[in-house]
Each structure stands twice: as structure tokens, then as C-alpha cells.
Amino acid sequence: MTPRPTDETRAAGRTRIAELKKARDRAHEEAEKAKSAADEQMWKDIAAELDGGEVLQRDVAEATGFSRDHVLKRTKQYRSTT
Prior knowledge:
Blueprint: H1 7-52, H2 57-64, H3 68-75
């Protein structure tokens, strides 16, 4: 039978595990930021395509699998109003 760890050993283990959790949380946060940035860039670029007049909302919806309403909502803030 394995002897039980001492209180000091357990405390050191908890500290190591807490650091591992912090590293994981940082990685998840960075991944979410990268995902958000990629989404924003995609919608800006799609808005530019729509403003260029060579594609329609229907084309974007078909190519992305999103509804036309979703495309409208996500690109509205990036579309030119002129």
C-alpha cells in the first residue's frame, strides 16, 4: 500500500495543479480572442464584398450556411452607407 502524502507534499501538488489550470485558462482566453478577431475580420471582408456589388446577401448565405438575416445583422455595422 502506498503511504499517504504529507501535508506539505499535497500543498505543493495543489500549487502545481493551480498553475496548470491558470495556463489552461490563459490558452482558452487567447483562443477565444483569436476566434473573435477572425470572426470580425471575416464579417468586415464579407461586408466589403457586398459593398463591391459583385455578390448578393443570398450568395453570402449560400456560401457560409448562415441565414440572410444573420448575414445582414453581422455585416450591417461594417457596410458603407454611401
